[in-house]
Amino acid sequence: MIKEIHVGDIGTVFLITLQDEGAGAVDLATATLLQICFKRPNGSIFNRTAVIVNAPGTDGVLKYVTIANDLDVQGVAPAKNWSFQVIITLPATGTWRSDICTFDVHPNICA
Prior knowledge:
mainly beta, 10 strands
């Protein structure tokens, strides 16, 4: 069983449920933008497109699966962890950003 994210991992699934405070799941059915903004420990940022998990998206669940070079540097709390923030655009209401979440990317003992 894999419990940690490591430098160079490909296929790591970020499964995120967006909740509107006090109102339940965010309805993503009409979203025109589902993006995750990742921030490396060195401060550099990259964006990836997320997808709805359960069509039509009324449960607020989206995901992104990492590709080569996404998780390219180590970053472990408390001082140097990674972070991400979801950005969504809902045509009827606007563009919104989630809370900022942090996670660790651990080193490897072999290449």
